[in-house]
Write a structure and sequence with these properties.
Helix content of chain B: 25-40%
Distance between the termini of chain B: 38 Å
CATH architecture of chain B: Alpha-Beta Complex
CATH class of chain B: Alpha Beta
Distance between the termini of chain A: 30 Å
CATH topology of chain B: tRNA-splicing ligase RtcB
Radius of gyration of chain B: 21 Å
Number of helices of chain B: 16
Number of domains of chain A: 1
Helix content of chain A: 25-40%
Oligomer: heterodimer
Mean pLDDT of chain A: 95
CATH architecture of chain A: 3-Layer(bab) Sandwich
Order of helices and strands of chain A: EEHEHEEHEEE
Number of helices of chain A: 3
Radius of gyration of chain A: 14 Å
Number of strands of chain A: 8
Structural class of chain A: alpha+beta
Number of domains of chain B: 1
Shape of chain B: globular
Strand content of chain A: 35-45%
CATH superfamily of chain A: Archease domain
Shape of chain A: globular
Largest sheet of chain B: 8 strands, mixed
Number of strands of chain B: 19
Largest sheet of chain A: 5 strands, antiparallel
Strand content of chain B: 25-35%
CATH topology of chain A: Archease, Possible Chaperone, Chain: A, domain 1
Low-confidence stretches of chain A: none
CATH superfamily of chain B: tRNA-splicing ligase RtcB
CATH class of chain A: Alpha Beta
Largest interface: A-B, 38 and 49 residues
Low-confidence stretches of chain B: none
Structural class of chain B: alpha+beta
Amino acid sequence: MDAYWQHFPHEADIGVAGVAPELAAAFEQAALGLIAVICEPQRVRALSTVDFICSAPDKELLLVDWLNALIFEMATRHMLFSRFEVQLEGTQLHARAWGEVVDVARHQPTVEVKGATYTELKVFQQPDGWWRAQCVVDV
Amino acid sequence: MVQQRLTQRSEFEWEIAPVGAMRVPAVFFASKALIDAMDAKVFEQACNVATLPGIVQASYAMPDAHWGYGFPIGGVAAFDAEAGGVVSAGGVGFDISCGVRTLHTGLTAAQLERIKIPLADALFEHVPAGVGSTGTLRLNDKAMDAMLGGGAQWAAEQGFGSAADLERIEEHGRMSGAVPGAVSAQAKKRQRDEMGTLGSGNHYLEVQRVVEVFDAAAAAAFGIKVDDVVVSIHCGSRGLGHQIGTEYLKEMVVAAPAYGIHLPDRELASAPIDSPLGQRYLGAMRSAINCALANRQIITHLTREVFARITPQARLDLLYDVSHNTCKVEEHLIDGRPQRLFVHRKGATRAFGPGHRELPETLRAIGQPVLIGGSMGTSSYILVGTKESETRAFSSACHGAGRAMSRHAATRQWHGRNVVDELAARGILIRSPSLRGVAEEAPGAYKDVSAVVDAADAAGLARKVARLVPVVCVKG
């Protein structure tokens, strides 16, 4: 089985989760889940890159920081992303995201995300050894 | 299950008595049917709020309460700074000062019917809405700070409105105590090209028809009657507010242990009101309130431009503007004595009763208009604040229908195209850049707004004045 992302329900908004054998890959999948709230990730071409550095006191806050950094760059650059590479050293994250400028006709974006929240925020190793990184995002 | 401890105080008032770390009770205003339909998380979240330091009287939930972040959406809580009270970034939320404003048009329903198609198209084309949309205004650093300090007053000075508008906005269009220097460069960058944009999600601009009047005296004071056409705008502080929420939430979560604050849920991130962090947040949050007021003022201007082009006889005077995600300093009677409190309303509308000094002279005798948004295909309501409301939940009422179903579930149940077609068959024109967005906002995904408003009225939170139905809806 490959690493994957999924959405889970929240009454007002939506939860995003990334699941993967490695924690860094779970963070990559959570990012894809975030994009999938906005549009279908496969519609977004990987034409240009943005680099990220985040640090936080623990893994859970780091996930929120990572998703919020993506939300900030998407908002200010008017971009969407579709591919991610994440490297983790303790609670410091280095990442690169690939994407392109929003094209409303082609991407058909549904909703902008206001922020990643601490609601249902969990980063943990499942009994099968895979990592799950999840939180609710406010739309 | 915390709701098993729920007891009924009266037909529309319920209570969970303090237990464990709760300092005050959690009180819910709702009918039995609404209580039965509430998510278990609402009860849990309202009880968590009751544990925060310096909370006064009770942690309240309005009839539209639903599962939020830390606070339930539809949550109200007031804190006393002198008793170690806190200000909570989570208690205000990401969309700081999101709110509703309603404009008269001077048109009748029959006049609207003749122009509604070109009007819908022109509003959709002229008012930026949806992901990636930008306004035409670009603010440099100096203008950004002036906007954050001046709110709708600043916007009016720039030519986006008049002094008459300002009288009909909470805080007279300008929130005092804003500190633009407490707003980060990132938050300002996020707002650089978002002035005068609606956003997405549940934000909208609707042209509505008054279909029912419940309180003739209040309706006359508000200047509305059956068959009048009004415009309602629902949006907030856009990227700037979202970024302030994001940044201060994290700072408060990290700092909470040093302040001796135990957070049962990290989303309740708080700092003492009198701490440097609490004061900085208040300065930034008030700046975001001004941003929201300026944003709704600019959208009002854009709306006026469209009406002037399509139907020049229209006159879009402001009925009122309310914010429903705020923390404001207000004086309330506690045990018969006036007390200065920091009142958090997360998805709740202020509802001052008659005689309140904050109200403009033209409304002081009747009370504050309380503007309640519905969902796309359903009713919106105008209520009025009452004297009685002061004794309920610090003069607060509901803010909307409240979701009954997740976005996830809504997209599985409805297709956007079908929703648009079904509403068109009922004479309601939807204009939106996103059909999936329409599906997520389908009317059936929301609670019955009429049941929510009836409960607010029966519980004494505010009194029903008029019911409106949408004719044109521009969704982000």
